[in-house]
Amino acid sequence: MGLIAVLGCLAFVLCLPLDPMLSGLLTGIQVKNDLRRELEFLQQFGAITSVILILLSAVLLDPGARPLLPRFILALAAPAAAAWVLKCLIGRGRPKLENPYLFVPPWRAHPVPLRDGSVAPLHSWEFWNSSAALLNSLPSSHTSAAFAFAALLSWRYRPLRHLVVAIAFAVGVCRLLFGSHYLSDVVAGGVLGWTVASLVLQQSRAKTRV
What we know:
By secondary structure, this protein is mainly alpha-helical. The chain has helices at about 1-15, 20-25, 35-40, 50-60, 70-90, 140-155, 160-175, 185-200, and strands at about 110-115, 120. The protein is globular, with a radius of gyration of 18 Å.
């Protein structure tokens, strides 16, 4: 687990210089119609609705998973909380702001466009204002949630490992294609989700596997 975290941090550092170029290339890719809808659906893997549906299915089909539900919930909640705290502390601007090296510390406000077309200074932690999300690029919470869920399903249902990890990678690709994050955001989110969820799961004393 420590090796994954170290390699992930190294990958993040190596990806930072690539962010401007890759972001520029991807903004030229137009994803439309049914393909876009399918990808938007896919990127919700690890989001609350998909988690509830899949965990409910697991509870119904796998009685041995029922005592593990609190551990499962913690394994998903911990990376989500960590991602939110990091977003607020780092304050990285999203690709829409066209400055991949914009980092706004929590004690500073930065002007961002509002929904009504005006511009106002906001802090990265002002979650009640949807426009503040423009300062919440790092890490990618969608990717973090996807990899946390993939870690959970891989831990409990080993034969699903390759499938769910592939889906988690697809979520990261979607976040890039939709211009929501830079590559380094996605890498950081993936490493965070997988590492934190795996650490929580490893604390479980349950030894059963399917």
